[in-house]
């Protein structure tokens, strides 16, 4: 593939790690962000110490606060801002974009209120004549490991296979491997919904439960988010792929995961406000829990784990008591869908 110019929107931990992957592959990366001193740090010190204390980025990676500059002559745009900022940033892009580009996103969540998936938001906000089909880049991938060039395998999903293949070729190298997928709903909902279960897995750990409980929440959580995903139009098989079970393992078992750490703190008795303040980074599972809980109610999907986490996060339910209530639910067959 010849050198591509890629605008990475969002200089957070994942945007920075993906920028390094693209730069390693010989592409021209320009990161856009809205915090002046962070952008200056990337340009002058070649670091982003807020996320990666030790990492020095290649000097070729440039950053700007000027969106028009970031988008000038770009071949592709990668959205990697938190879910709550995606529509806002897409509207800003629509105002300045003046040529047709490939559009990808690597964020994981559902919009509050509308419950929309992020690719739907991008389709709504970006004129069809100025973009490809949206590509969703999602899978088990801690930024902390990708930035060290650890082996990472994820999915690239698009309605148009050629667009998914473009992302596959753009990102793939010896440590970063992408698989194409045409199940956009599946890949996108799996990536968003696993964060709820990661919060729950962390909470069980914080409460002092062990590996049996961890395995239980991951497998029963998978059953539950698959039910919701399928009701939203996903293919069930996607949920046992990288973006489903793969991402559940990586976030449901690791201290790298902000969602897991938030759950752990919750289990140890901290309040949500305090947890969010201490994290200083986005904990997508908090707002996704609310969106999924509301969606489950409106679609008539039984989501007992999500409901329990919702009650702990939003209704001040006591986590140990809430878990016991889950255990006391009416007995049922395992494979009831
Ligand atoms: N970190 C990871 O390992 C992975 C993250 N993801 C997903 O990627 C997405 C981003 O996560 P991550 O990079 O970790 O998040 P971070 O919290 O590390 O960073 C988010 C970045 O977005 C910026 N931002 C927020 N709002 C706006 C806005 N309105 N306009 C412009 N920039 C904005 C923030 O700037 P500031 O704080 O200065 O306002 C910050 O630089 C999430 O959906 C996450 O689930 C997916 C896979 C892995
Ligand atoms: O999505 C992720 C890993 O695949 C990152 O998870 P956290 O947002 O919980 O850190």
TrEMBL record:
Pfam families: NAD_Gly3P_dh_C (PF07479), NAD_Gly3P_dh_N (PF01210). The keyword Oxidoreductase applies. Gene3D superfamilies: N-(1-d-carboxylethyl)-l-norvaline Dehydrogenase, domain 2, NAD(P)-binding Rossmann-like Domain. One of its GO terms (cellular component) is cytosol. Residues 183-323 form the Glycerol-3-phosphate dehydrogenase NAD-dependent C-terminal domain. It catalyses: sn-glycerol 3-phosphate + NAD(+) = dihydroxyacetone phosphate + NADH + H(+); sn-glycerol 3-phosphate + NADP(+) = dihydroxyacetone phosphate + NADPH + H(+). Substrate binds at residues 108, 258-259. One of its GO terms (biological process) is carbohydrate metabolic process. The keyword Lipid metabolism applies. It is found in: Cytoplasm. The active site is at 194 (proton acceptor). It comes from the Bacteria. NAD(+) binds at residues 10-15, 143, 258. It is an enzyme of class 1 (oxidoreductase). GO terms for molecular function: glycerol-3-phosphate dehydrogenase (NAD+) activity; glycerol-3-phosphate dehydrogenase (NADP+) activity; NAD binding. Pathway: Membrane lipid metabolism; glycerophospholipid metabolism. Sn-glycerol 3-phosphate binds at residues 108, 139, 141, 194, 247, 257-259. Its EC number is 1.1.1.94. Residues 6-162 form the Glycerol-3-phosphate dehydrogenase NAD-dependent N-terminal domain. Keywords: Cytoplasm, Lipid biosynthesis, Lipid metabolism, NAD, NADP, Nucleotide-binding, Oxidoreductase, Phospholipid biosynthesis, Phospholipid metabolism. NADPH binds at residues 13-14, 34, 51, 108, 143, 258, 282, 284. PROSITE patterns: NAD_G3PDH (PS00957). HAMAP family: NAD_Glyc3P_dehydrog. Catalyzes the reduction of the glycolytic intermediate dihydroxyacetone phosphate (DHAP) to sn-glycerol 3-phosphate (G3P), the key precursor for phospholipid synthesis. Belongs to the NAD-dependent glycerol-3-phosphate dehydrogenase family. This is Glycerol-3-phosphate dehydrogenase [NAD(P)+]. The gene is gpsA.
